[in-house]
Write a structure and sequence with these properties.
alpha+beta; four-stranded antiparallel beta sheet; about 15% helix; elongated
């Protein structure tokens, strides 16, 4: 695993909203912790990797919380539809069908906005609010965590 792959992994974890991720690949162990204004990464390796300097445990801090705080203030007038379960997020009921909800779609309470696959079961996620979809926060076919924001809805 080279430094670019590690940086991309850090960015992905920071965007996903996960609080901690541990990854073990052969002789390399990576732990990424997010929250409280910084993203902390610890890399421990038993044997030297090609193309990467021999470092025991570097810590990389990024201003992720500042960017997300600005986004939260801009989006504070909107209501968030969050994931009720862990699984894989899908915007369509099947590959040949249209998306459940697009940006600009008016949704009512009980309308299906997406499906989340968990353990080979497809769970329809229904809107708990009425309004217009302003933003889709998750890419199609992406893994989602419990309580992860999926959509921003303007209730007005």
């Amino acid at each position: 695993m080279d430094i670019k792959e590690i940086q991309n992994l850090i960015k992905f974890v920071a965007k996903s909203g996960a609080s901690e991720v541990k990854l073990e690949i052969k002789d390399v162990k990576i732990t990424i912790k997010t929250g409280s204004g910084t993203t902390e990464t610890t890399i421990v390796q038993a044997a030297p990797m090609q193309g990467m300097p021999q470092v025991a445990a570097p810590t990389i801090a990024t201003p992720v919380a500042q960017q997300s705080a600005q986004a939260v203030s801009e989006d504070s007038k909107y209501i968030t539809i969050k994931s009720p379960i862990i699984g894989t997020f899908y915007r369509k009921p099947s590959p040949d069908k249209p998306n459940f909800a697009e940006v600009g779609t008016e949704v009512k309470i009980g309308d299906t906005v997406c499906v989340i696959e968990a353990m080979k079961l497809f769970n329809e996620i229904e809107s708990e609010i009425s309004g217009k979809i302003i933003k889709v926060l998750v890419d199609d076919s992406s893994p989602v965590e419990f309580d992860q924001p999926l959509f921003l809805v303007d209730p007005s």
